[in-house]
Amino acid sequence: MAKYTAAIDEDTRQRIHALPRGINFPAFMRKAINAFVEELEKNPDLEPENFIITLSARKDASDKKRR
After folding, report:
1. Each residue of 26-66: pLDDT tens digit?
2. Alpha-carbon span 47 to 15, nearest angstrom
């Protein structure tokens, strides 16, 4: 699998490192990236300004590991 990187500013990096240990940051990023890719596949002319990230109360178990 290829790894993609994007530069982030130092302030954002520090904020990510300051998150509580119980937060699974990679799972959040996987879900966000999947949503962005799906939208870009539908409309490749979208720009970053076209995206709004919101919080949903719905719990999605699709990213949880099966036991």
Report:
1. 898 888 889 889 999 999 999 989 888 888 877 766 666 65
2. 25
Tokens of 56: 């949903």
Other Cβ atoms closer than 10 A to 48: 6
- What is the DSSP track for the chain? ---------HHHHHHHHTS-TT--HHHHHHHHHHHHHHHHHH-TT--GGG------S---GGGSPP-
Please tell me the distance from the alpha carbon of residue 32 to that of residue 30, in angstroms, as a whole number.
6
pTM of the model: 0.63
